[in-house]
Amino acid sequence: MAPAGDREGYWGPTTSTLDWCEENYTVTWYIAEFWNTLLDELPMIYSCCIFVYCMFECFKTKNSVNYHLLFTLVLFSLIVTTVYLRVKEPVFHQVMYGMLVFTLVVRSIYIVTWVYPWLRGLGYTSLGVFLLGFLLWNIDNIFCDSLRNFRKKVPPIIAVTTQFHAWWHILTGLGSYLHILFSLYTRTLYLRYRPKVKFLFGIWPVILFEPLRKQ
After folding, report:
1. Chain centroid to CA 88: how far?
2. Residues 168, 40 contacting (CB under 8 angstroms)
3. Fewest Cβ atoms nearer than 10 Å: which of 139, 147, 181, 215?
4. Is pLDDT of 185 > 60?
């Protein structure tokens, strides 16, 4: 977490439940953490619940709704939201988010081990990218003082590359996107489509699929 001593900006003293390692108001007087302006915390819970639902419903028939699972995930989200807004304890949020991620990892490993082994590359790549972001997030938290001192000694173009919480957003976003592709591939394959991973401009992966040809 960020040490005390950040300067005050246009919006006044910091009131957020979390203040990351990035120096506040150093880039502009109007944005406290210029490189970390994405939504945090509760949206992570909501999006992860959607992923969990998709992964556990990927082997169901078309137009089916698992109301029990849907109710459980909505209730979980409401409980986490209510408790977190009351106690504002970051560790509680991190444990709840970790539970959802662990559920996704176990389900994904089951699929690439027992159902579609040829999807290991995509599944493990999405997991690896996410874990790299998680590693940088922890480095940012644990070595915040050292990172801040380092950024004072190097040119800004180098200093910005050490904003590891911003890299956490980028890498977890990419990992989540790859996991969505993994979920889509699994679902469309089960529905007897013919999914294929293509790379736009040779870089960006997308899923293309066609209906199974009629005999």
Report:
1. 20
2. no
3. 215
4. yes
